Every structure is written in C-alpha cells, then in structure tokens.
C-alpha cells in the first residue's frame, strides 16, 4: 500500500456540524490498482477548525455524469432535479441547461416560453424523469449549469439514451437559441 491520502469533509445542517475523515490508499496488485477506502469521524474536533476542510453541497465542475430524477420543469431551460451524488445520497438541485436560452414565460415571449416548457415536459416524460447530467459549475443566480441527457434502461442499468444532449435537442426542435453561435 502507498502512503494514505486523507480528505476532510465538513457538512453543516442548521446548527449541527458533521466532520468526516476519509482515508484513501492505493496499491498496485497483479490485477491492477486496488483502492482501500475508509471513512471515520475524527477522534477530536481538529477537523472542524482546520482550514483544509470544505463545505461541499454538490460536486463542482466535472466530466462525470450523475444520475438524476426530474422533480419539476421550471421553464424551457431550468429544472429541479434530485441528483445522486453518492450511493444513497441525493440532493435537490435547480439546474439550468448550459449554452442554450429558451424564451421566458413572461412578456412578449410568453407563448414561445410555454411551448418550450411543454416540449421539455413531454420529452422528459419518455424516460419517467430519469436523466443523466454533467455539472459544469454555477451561474450568477445560484443554479447549477449542466449538460443533460435522457436516460433509458440499457443492458447495464440506466444509461444515456443518445450521444445528443437534451440541450442540443432543445435547440434543434426550435425551442431555444444556441448561445455558442451568438457569442461573437
């Protein structure tokens, strides 16, 4: 085994603060890499006062795909989802589709905004609300910006239904503008 790496996590729920030390060890075996994972509460409160701890409510920008379930369509480019961030750990996140802009549900674009929202609702009903998302960070209103894929039942469980993201499909259906083309 190599020297262990320690990761400190700190969560705050109301006035309750929970600290956890995670130990990760890597070993090279005849079959490849082996990982040992151990989590434990610290023996003292040193982790609570350490500058190395971080509050992590949701993974930051990532190339990983996270399984998610649709909870509510807010408008043509914003959704509320329950995102699985760890086995048996789900958080509710308001997400916005990256690189697209759907019409708003108010003002002159209300009709087009409702059409975009209805297209999104109907498209998402095909998968009973099962989704895959890639978190790309946060935007100024606090929403997570994501690339989203529909999920279908495959040979190894649920998997993305196509290589085309829902973001791109929304633009191709004429219900949103591709912001990458308008960035000039």
Gyration radius, rounded: 20 Å
SSE order, as H and E? EEEEEEEHEEEHE
Main-sheet strand order equals 4-5-6-9-8
Query: Quick one: overall form?
Result: globular
Amount of beta strand: over 45%
Structure class: mainly beta
Gap between N and C termini: 52 Å
Instruction: Just name the CATH architecture of the largest domain.
Output: Beta Barrel
Determine the number of helices (DSSP H or I, runs of at least 4 residues): 2
Number of strands: 11
Based on the model shown, name its key terms.
three-stranded antiparallel sheet, mainly beta, 2 domains, disordered N terminus, OB fold (Dihydrolipoamide Acetyltransferase, E2P), 2 helices, 184 residues
Report on this model:
The chain has 2 domains: 5-49, no CATH class; 66-178, OB fold (Dihydrolipoamide Acetyltransferase, E2P), CATH 2.40.50. It has helices spanning 110-125, 166-172, and strands at 5-13, 16-29, 32-40, 66-75, 78-86, 89-97, 100-101, 130-138, 144-154, 157-160, 177-178. It has 2 helices and 11 strands; from the N terminus they run βββββββαβββαβ. It has 184 residues and is mainly β.
Short description:
This protein has 184 residues and is mainly β.
Describe the secondary structure blueprint for this structure.
Blueprint: E1 5-13, E2 16-29, E3 32-40, E4 66-75, E5 78-86, E6 89-97, E7 100-101, H1 110-125, E8 130-138, E9 144-154, E10 157-160, H2 166-172, E11 177-178
